[in-house]
Amino acid sequence: MHFLALATDYDGTLAADGRVTEATVAALERLRESGRKLILVTGRQLDDLCRVFPNVDLFESVVAENGALLYFPATKEEQLLGDRPPEAFIEKLRSLDVRPLSVGKVIVATWEPNETTVLAAIRDLGLEWQIIFNKGAVMSLPSGIDKATGLNAALNRMGLSADNVIAVGDAENDLSFLKLCGFSVAVANALPMVKQAADWVTQGSTGEGIIELIERLLAR
Length: 220
Fold this sequence. Notes:
The chain is an alpha/beta fold. The protein folds into two domains: about 5-80 and about 145-220, HAD superfamily/HAD-like (Rossmann fold, 3-Layer(aba) Sandwich); about 85-140, Hypothetical Protein Ta0175, Chain: A, domain 2 (Alpha-Beta Complex), CATH 3.90.1070. It is about 35% helix and about 25% strand. The strands form two sheets. Strands 5-4-3-2-1-10-11-12 form an eight-stranded mixed beta sheet, with helices on both faces. The protein has a four-stranded antiparallel beta sheet with strand order 6-7-9-8, with helices on one face. The longest helix has 14 residues, at about 205-220. The model has no long low-confidence stretch (mean pLDDT about 95). One of its GO terms (cellular component) is cytosol. This is Haloacid dehalogenase. GO terms for molecular function: magnesium ion binding; phosphatase activity. Pfam families: Hydrolase_3.
């Protein structure tokens, strides 16, 4: 099978402690120069991502907010894939002293052990929202939105099939888009459930694993 694109998670996969090494950026540039497309699939909010990762323009498209927002660096275009969070939901979480609390254009995020409080607020307000976990992070999104739906929307815009995409990740929220793609990879520091679901596991962790994967792709 011929792979035309690489879709990668950010934190814990491409980046360690929120940062991407120069060697990893250089590997991404080599893969892009080979004619393949790069897609970033992250739970981060877009402004936060751009602040910590100045090389975001290496990517053809960015799936942010765990599937709720598409961003195309070449044109600076943004496309929301879900409704904005209800103000009543945000106010209720603040009244319940949920901290930290981060509100994006769609996503509402906090950390464990706040998931019980968030779930109760969703129930009390009668919202069709879900909770998605990411190594301790607790992300609230409208039902039906995840990294797979976001990536699929990006691929449709790019005219690509998921069968021709390699996906790489490390955490439970990555499983949906790993299953969507033609070949799935887990970095060495991935959760055991992600390694078990992946087609291949790198020997290196985070960026070193990405470099390992890219070198293997370029050698084919």
